[in-house]
Amino acid sequence: MSLDAQTRKLAAIAYGEASGANDSNEIGGIAWAVANRARTWGGKTVDGLLAADPNYTYAVKDGNQRYAKLMKATEAAIAADPGMKLAVDSAKAALANSGNDPSNGAYWWDGKDFKSNFDNHPKVKDGFHITDPKHNIFDVKDVAHPTTIYWKVRDKKTGKEVNSKVRGKFQFVWESTAAYGSTIFWKHDADYIKATGGKAYR
After folding, report:
1. Nearest-CA neighbor of 138 among 151, 126, 124?
2. Among 28, 92, 132, 168, which is most buried by a count of CB atoms within 10 Å?
3. Which residues pair with 102 in a beta bridge?
4. pLDDT digits (tens, 9 = 90+) for 57-108
5. Distance between CA 183 and CA 162 in Å, rounded?
């Protein structure tokens, strides 16, 4: 059976975003994180997900050599290359929602830039929590940003919005779910979702 476009795209993302170690959990985790988010976000295709969030993965547009290699490779070349074959097998399993999810339900991931660009990293600015010491591959400490969200009501006299009762509180926007190779995986903190009324996949 020929390799369809969505499976190839997902495999290329996983292969391109992962480190060169060709770790099955790292590549598989990235494939599953993409598929998890696409599935939860209204059953989108991989292309549909990238259209909805163009900055989700940089491998597709930053000249990533591994991504380009798999996108251009013949099926024979993929079958003969352990890393690319692993990526395709992982993509197939993730899209089928079949088997073990190494990401443990993640929708996002970060590589080495999480540490090298730590002070300016968006997840650091948002606040993050490492839920298991095994996930702390970059040897960083949690960054908490305690936040209180209030229900907004409109003052009938002035017409202005004012804070009413507390809707919820959270310290972190992100929490780790797994880590392999040079990749750490994330989902949104439950308190953050509850307090903001946000979606797990946004």
Report:
1. 124
2. 28
3. none
4. 999 998 999 999 999 999 999 999 999 999 999 999 999 999 999 999 999 9
5. 42
